[in-house]
Amino acid sequence: MTSKFDLSAILQGEYAELIVKGIETTLQLAFVAWCMAMAVALLLVSIRLTGNKYAERLVAGYVSYHRNVPTLVQLMLWYFGIPTLLSESTQIWLANYSTEYLFSVIALGLCQAAYFSEDIRSGLRAIPAGQVEASRALGLGYVRSMRYVILPQGVRNCLPSLINHTVLLFKNTSLVMAIGVVELTYATREVENYTFRTFEAYLVATVVYLAISLMLMGLGALLARHFSKAMAR
């Protein structure tokens, strides 16, 4: 086993290519899952705003499940459990494809949607009730009231939480290595197995995760300042 520290051993050739591929897969997975999570979250918030108590209970159950069951367990359920509920012909059809990525997106997207929906709902609830009446008194219709008064405040209120949970989603992509998706953590483990340079391999992964997480948080801070300035005008 080699003990001398040497980053160059893993930052060149096929090992570097494997790590780069892992980073690309991680970013792609995080982006697609984020888009899915945001779309589902907006749908959940819309359902809760209808005032239908049965629909609200259904959404509350959805949120409770995804926030209280470990993400890894949800991922395993989707990958190993859900296919067994499908017809035999469908299972055979799925066996011809690599479904690891698909189920990873679904599991991460649906799980994160629960967090996003609560962030958005909390942001909207923090707006004083008199804001809507005040905007109507100024002659703004419903659409213009939502566009110029309610939504800007709602986004500003929920943005910090959304950014934090976006970072959480990015970090949770490492869980999909459990079902064979070659993302950054999986690639790092493979490099470590081939080179026996555990410290160097995981140091690179640590730096990449930290750098991207800090960039996301920095982007969130910039957006927060932008909305604060926009609201101050």
TrEMBL record:
Bilayer disposition of the protein: Multi-pass membrane protein
Sequence ranges assigned to domain ABC transmembrane type-1 in this UniProt record: 23-220
Location in or out of the cell: Cell inner membrane; Cell membrane
GO biological process: amino acid transport
GO MF annotations in UniProt: transmembrane transporter activity
GO CC terms, sorted: ATP-binding cassette (ABC) transporter complex
Any Pfam family matching the protein: BPD_transp_1
Domain of life: Bacteria
InterPro entries: AA_ABC_transptr_permease_3TM, ArtM/GltK/GlnP/TcyL/YhdX-like, MetI-like, MetI-like_sf
Transmembrane segment boundaries: 27-47, 162-182, 202-224
Principal location class: membrane
Assigned keywords, A-Z: Amino-acid transport, Cell membrane, Membrane, Transmembrane, Transmembrane helix, Transport
Family under the similarity heading: Belongs to the binding-protein-dependent transport system permease family. HisMQ subfamily.
Name recorded for this polypeptide: Glutamine ABC transporter, permease protein
